[in-house]
Amino acid sequence: MYKAHFRLRELPFSITPDTGYFFSFRSYQEALNTLLVAARNGEGFIKITGEVGTGKTLLCRKFMSLLDADFVTAYIPNPLLEPRSLMLALADELGIQEDRQLDQHQLIKAINLSLLHIARTGKRALLCIDEAQALPLETLEALRLLSNLETEKRKLLQIVLFGQPELDSKLAHRDIRQLTQRISFHYQLQTLSSNEIKIYINHRLNVAGYQGPALFGAAALYMLSRCSGGVPRLLNILAHKAMMLSFGEGRQAVSARHVVLAAKDTFALARLSRYVRLTAIAGTASILVLATMAWLHFLE
Fold first, then answer.
1. Would you give the DSSP letter of residue 280?
2. N or C, which terminus of the chain has less Cβ within 10 Å?
3. 111 burial class (0-12, 13-18, 19+ CB within 10 angstroms)?
4. For residue 87, what are the contacts with CB-CB under 8 A and spacing of at least 6?
5. Low-confidence ranges of the chain (pLDDT < 50)
6. What pLDDT is attached to residue 195?
C-alpha cells in the first residue's frame, strides 16, 4: 500500500479499535473520567452513548485497559441475546464451569456464588456491554435482576452500557423503568471539533511512525472536517482514501482535492453537502483504479 511511500511503520487510519491510537480529546477524556470515577465508587449501572462511529468501542477497550488488578472484567460485544444466553455469556466471561443445561434460576445462583467469591478476595466485578442498543427489553430486565446481587455493603456486579442514542429510547420504555432509575452515571460522546481534528490526524500519523512535514495541509484538514462532521470513523476512512490518492499520484502531501474525491467514493457520504459537490474537481477516477495504478507502478 502506501506505508513505504510515506515512511510509515503501519497504516495510521485503520477503523479497527486500537487503544494504541487512543486520542484524549475533550469528550473522550470526560467520558473516561466518568467511567473511572463511577467504577471506583461501585455504582451499579453506568451508561455511555454516542452516534455511530464516535469511538464507543475504542473507549470501552481503553477504559478496561486502565482498570487495575482490583477489578475482574467481563466483556460482551454482541448483546443481541435472550436473557439466558446473556447469563451464559457472563458465566463464560467469569470462568464459571457449570452445566449448560441449568435453568435461569440455577444459572443466576452460580453467577452469584462466583461474584461473592470475587468480593471476598477484595475485588470488584464489572461487566461492559457494547452495542447495548441491541439488547432486547427482556434481556435488559434480566440485567436489572443481576444488578440486585449485592452484599450489605455494595453491589456484586457493576454494569456499563455502551450504545447508540437508540439505547436511550429503549430505556425510556415503561416496562424497564426500574432499570433506568438505577443508572447513576451517564455521558454522551461528542464529535471532534475542527481544532481537535488537526491534532487527531497528526496524532495517528505520529503513532504510525510518520516523521515528515505536514502531510495534511490546512485546506485538506478543512475538507476533512466538512466531509466527516468530526466523526472519528469517517475521518479514518477519508484520511486513508485520501492518502491512497496522493500515493497514486506520486505526491508527498494530501490536498483538499484528494479529500473531496475520497468523500465522493465513500458510501456513507453519498449525500455530500452542496459545498463539497461544487468544490469537487472533474475527472474523479475511483479510488480502486488509482490504487491499482499505484500498485502496478510500485511493482515496476
1. P
2. C
3. buried
4. 104, 107, 108, 111, 142, 146
5. 271-300
6. 93
CA distances from 19 to 55, 66, 185, 196 (A): 11, 11, 23, 18
The model carries a pTM of 0.85
Question: How far is it, in rounded angstroms, from Cα 207 to Cα 22?
Answer: 10
Q: What is the dihedral of CA 238, 240, 246, 252, to 10 degrees?
A: 120
- Residue 258's contacts (CB-CB under 8 Å, 6 or more residues apart) are 220, 242, 243, 245, 246
Reported as a single tens digit per residue, the pLDDT across 13-58 is 999 999 999 988 899 999 999 999 999 988 779 999 999 999 999 9
3-state secondary structure of 57: helix
Per-residue confidence (pLDDT) for residue 268, from 0 to 100: 64
Q: Exposed (0-12), middle (13-18) or buried (19+): which is 169, by Cβ within 10 Å?
A: exposed
- Judge whether 59 and 48 are in contact, CB under 8 Å: yes
Residues whose CB falls within 8 Å of the CB of residue 93, separated by 6 or more in sequence, listed in order = 74, 75, 76, 127
Q: Order the strands of the 183-188 sheet from edge to edge.
A: 71-76, 124-129, 157-163, 45-49, 183-188
Residue in the block written with cell 430486565 = 141
* CB-CB contact of 37 with 149 (8 Å): no
* pLDDT (0 to 100) of residue 100: 67
Q: Are 208 and 10 a contacting pair, CB within 8 Å?
A: yes
Distance of CA 251 to CAs 54, 97, 245, Å?
A: 30, 58, 9
Q: Could you tell me which of 261, 285, 283, 237 has the C-alpha nearest to residue 294?
A: 285
H-helix or E-strand spanning residue 38 = helix 26-41
- SS3 readout for 164-208: CCHHHHHHCCHHHHHHHCCEEEEEECCCCCHHHHHHHHHHHHHHC
